[in-house]
Amino acid sequence: MSEQQTEQQTDQRFVRVCRVDELPAVGAAAAEIEGRRVALVHTADGAVHCVDDTCSHANVSLAEGELDGCTLECWLHGSRFDLRTGTPTGPPAITPIAVHTVRIEGDDVHVALSEES
Q1: For the chain, N or C: smaller number of CB within 10 Å?
Q2: What angle do CA 49, 77, 37 make, to 5 degrees?
Q3: Whole-prediction pTM value?
């Protein structure tokens, strides 16, 4: 990791959101952090990801969608978003969603919101 990346990570403001065991074993849950609605996603490999909860194509919750590996599907029109990059993997969505930094401390999930909306 470069010195600049380390400084950026240090500058991020992490907020405790929940305990890992409060998340589905595999799946997504909606949460609100500082007035921003996010989806916390626990994947089969044990990783926890955090993305904006609203589909960029339609105003619906992504936390209610299906998880497939490291992609989350919008239940309304079937767009899938990569949890690592926020990039849609196919239509109808063409605009990425914001991805937020997750840090696990003990049993707690902490999230630093990105500047993107």
Answers
A1: N
A2: 40
A3: 0.87
